[in-house]
Amino acid sequence: MASTDDKVILKSSEGECFEVDMAVASHLQIVKSVLEDCEGSSDKVVSLFIVEAKYVAMIIEYYKNYVELKEKHEEGGFEEKLKEFEKQFLEQIDKKELKGLVMAVNYLNAPALFDVVCTAIAKHIENKSVEYVREYFGIVNDFTAEEEAQIREEHRWAYDGVNDD
Amino acid sequence: MPEIPQLPPEIIAEILSRLPVKSIMRCKCVCKPWRSFLSDHDFAKMHLEKARQSRRFFLFTEPFQSFDLEAQSYEDIRTTELNIPMSINSVDVETVGSCDGLICAAVEDERYFLVWNPTTRVVREIFMPNSSQVGHSFYGFGYDNQLDDYKIMLGSIANGSNEAELDIFTLKTNKWRRIEGLHCNSVLVGSASFLNGILHWLVVRRDNGAQICAIVSFDLVQEKFREVMQVPDQISHLTRDFKVVGKSLCLYTDMIGDYFEAWVMKEYGNPASWTTSVKFKNDALPGYENYFLLVDITTNGGEKRSCSSNNVILVVGDKGSYWIINWSFWNSVTGKWFGFFLLKSKTGMDIPFKGWSCVFDSPQVVLVDNDIVF
C-alpha cells in the first residue's frame, strides 16, 4: 500500500503516536537514521523516548508548514513566507516551553528549527536583567557580592535599558 | 508538570552566541562558568560566524562616533558615541586596518599600535619593536586563519635597497617576530587593505608621463610577498586610490574628470575581471570639486523606492569638520540601489574630525585581549 509507505509513526515519551508524512519526518535527522538502520522492516514506528507529546506536536507543525510552504513557493518567496509563519508559530509558545522545545529539537537533530528556537530564546533574554536570565535558565549565582559588583563595574555601559518582566 | 531540566552547555552556547554584544557583556555576571565561557576565543569565533554583519563608519572626533553605513534613509542614521577606555593625546594617529570588528591604529609619534574593539570597548596598546624605522614604514592588520589569530605587520625598506625588514605581531602570543631578507621592488608606504588573508598596497609610478598602477600584496598567513598585480592600462591612468569594498578590491578615480568611476576586481587575482561598479557625472555630487576619499559602497538589495537622493548617507570630512549628507543611486544594470560615501574637505558642522577614520564590522565580540577569567 503506497499510502503507508510514505508515512511514519512518531511515538512520544508518554506513548502517544503521531502519524507523519515521510517528507516532514525526514527533516528530523534522528528519524532518518533510525529508519535507515532498519531498512526493509515493515515497522515504521520511531520511539522518541525523551520527547513529550506537546513538543512532538510543535515540531511536526513546524515542519509540516515548512514542507508545504517550500512546495508552494518553489519559484521564490519561500523565505519570507517561512519567516511569517515562524513569527506566528513562536507566538503560541510559552517562553518557558521554548527551553523544552529546544532540548527536543536538539535531540531530534532538526537544524532549521533549532536555529529558530535558539534565536527566539536569545531574543527573549536580550534585554532582560541578569537576575531574570539566572531564573530563566535555573542558574545559581556563584559569585560573591564583591565579585559581582566588580564585574558589573567593568561593563557598566551594558546595564542600560534592561527590563525585568 | 515536570520541571524542565537545565539546558546542556552546548545548547546554552548556541543561544548566547545569537545575542547582541551588550547582552553578552551583561551575561558575564550570571555565573562563573558563563563568565569564563563568554570570555573565550572559541565563543568569540562562534559569535562572529552568527553575528549579523553590518558595516559602520568610525570617525575620530571628540567624542568618537560611528555611523551605520547601511542606514536605509537619512532619518535612520544613528550616530553612536564610542568610548575608548584610554586617552589618545596624539593627533598623529593612522588607521592600520580593520578586521572582524577590530580596529587597529598606529600612534606613530608615541610608537605604539592600538587594537580596539569598539563594541566591547576593550583596547590594547602594543608598543612597536625598537629596531623598526619610523618614516618610510608600511603596515597592515588582518586575520591569519591558520593560526586563528590577528596579526599586525610593520615593515620598512631601506633607501636604495629592495630588501624588506618586517616585524609581525600576533595578538595571542603577544610577541613581535622579525623576518628579514624578503625581496620587494616597490616602495610601500602606509596602511594596507586586508582581504582574504592578504594585505594590499597600491603602488603608483610614472612612465613617460603616463601613470601606471600596480597592487603589491603580502600573504599574512605564508608571510611572503606575492606576485605584483598590474592594473590594466585603461583603469590605471585614471586611478587615484583604492580600498576594499565588501569582498573585493576597488579602485577609484578622483573628481577631476567628467565622471567619477569605481571598479571592483570581481574575481580576485584576475586582472581581466575589473568591472565598473559605480559611474556617474561628477557634478551630480555636492562639493564634487573637493578632494575626497571613497569610504564605502553599499548595496541596498534592490528595494523598490522612488529614485531620490535621500536614501543613504554621504559622510564628508575635513581636518576641522565633517558633514553628513545622504546620497544614493539606482544602478539600472544590476537593478540595485547603492549608497555612496565620500570623505572630502569642506567645512560643515563644528565637530572636530582629526582625520582618523575607518570602516569596521559591527557588532562583534572578538577579543582584543585575553579577558580576566575567574
UniProtKB/TrEMBL annotation, chain A:
* Keyword flag Cell membrane: no
Question: Domain SKP1 component dimerisation, which positions?
Answer: 113-158
Q: Which keywords does this Swiss-Prot/TrEMBL entry list?
A: Ubl conjugation pathway
Associated pathway: Protein modification; protein ubiquitination
Which SUPFAM superfamilies does the record match to this protein? POZ domain (SSF54695), Skp1 dimerisation domain-like (SSF81382)
Q: Which domain of life does the UniProt lineage start with?
A: Eukaryota
Pfam families tied to this protein: Skp1, Skp1_POZ
Q: Which SMART domains match?
A: Skp1
Q: Where is the SKP1 component POZ domain?
A: 7-67
State the Gene Ontology BP annotations: jasmonic acid mediated signaling pathway; protein ubiquitination; ubiquitin-dependent protein catabolic process
What is the annotated role of this protein in its UniProt record? Answer: Involved in ubiquitination and subsequent proteasomal degradation of target proteins. Together with CUL1, RBX1 and a F-box protein, it forms a SCF E3 ubiquitin ligase complex. The functional specificity of this complex depends on the type of F-box protein. In the SCF complex, it serves as an adapter that links the F-box protein to CUL1.
The UniProt similarity line reads: Belongs to the SKP1 family.
Q: How does it assemble?
A: Part of a SCF (SKP1-cullin-F-box) protein ligase complex.
Q: What is this protein called?
A: SKP1-like protein
Organism listed in the record? Erythroxylum novogranatense
UniProtKB/TrEMBL annotation, chain B:
* Matching InterPro entries: F-box-assoc_dom_typ1, F-box-assoc_interact_dom, F-box-like_dom_sf, F-box_dom, Gal_Oxase/kelch_b-propeller, SCF_F-box_component
Gene3D superfamilies (alphabetical): 1.20.1280.50
In this entry, which stretches build a coiled coil?
none
Any one Pfam family here would be F-box
What sequence ranges are listed for the domain F-box? 1-46
Which branch of life, at top level? Eukaryota
- NCBIfam families per the UniProt record, alphabetical: F_box_assoc_1 (TIGR01640)
What is the protein named? F-box domain-containing protein
